[in-house]
Design brief:
The chain has helices at residues 3-20, 23-73, 89-111, 115-125, 131-143, 147-160, 163-175, 179-190. The chain is mainly alpha-helical and 191 residues long.
Length: 191
């Protein structure tokens, strides 16, 4: 039943109740009134969550644009050579700073009991983050002990992203000392 239909039925029931004064009808009107209040309350809560998520995505895009501008303005020296086995710590440090705000915000939402909103924020962030930054998000989530969020992001990312991106995230996780997460994201990609 749509919200508009519920409102229409409520108005009709109120009008009928005023004409008849029927006790059974009054109970039905009260039930419809309570149903209407519940639906409107849920709708308002969802609107608030959507507004928070839109603001978080906007902040993330702004942060990313600022970081990209700063990186473009840097000298083209590139990262220092690092043995492939150990991973490129210099690049990883830059990527972690780009996503720290995202992880903090997702952690706050999770701590406030809004795990679904936190996961939605992380899921939408994969639209703007590259695989290296996504690996940074996963590493920070683990470091800050948001294990359930990390597990859910691994599953969603492995399922929804292309093979190349998943492989790059898995390789980065493995190189950064998180072989279990690397295996989990590869497993999620195969499901």
């Amino acid at each position: 039943m749509t919200l508009e239909t519920l409102r229409l039925l409520h108005k009709q029931a109120e009008a009928e109740r005023g004409r008849r004064g029927n006790g059974a009808l009054a109970a039905e009107v009260d039930a419809l009134t309570e149903q209407l209040r519940t639906v409107e309350s849920e709708r308002a809560a969802l609107r608030d969550e959507v507004a928070v998520l839109k603001e978080a995505v906007k902040e993330l895009k702004t942060t990313r644009a600022g970081l990209q501008a700063r990186l473009a303005a840097r000298t083209p020296s590139g990262p220092l050579p690092v043995p492939r086995r150990k991973g490129d710590r210099q690049r990883m440090r830059t990527d972690v700073s780009a996503v720290r705000g995202l992880v903090t915000q997702a952690g706050r939402l999770d701590a406030d009991g809004r795990a679904e909103a936190a996961l939605m924020l992380l899921r939408r962030s994969t639209e703007v983050l590259n695989p290296l930054e996504t690996a940074g998000v996963l590493l920070l989530l683990r470091q800050q002990q948001h294990d359930e969020l990390a597990d859910n992001l691994i599953h969603v990312y492995g399922r929804d992203q292309g093979d190349q991106d998943v492989l790059q995230v898995a390789l980065t996780l493995h190189e950064q000392g998180s072989p279990d997460d690397a295996g989990a994201i590869l497993h999620a990609a195969l499901e």
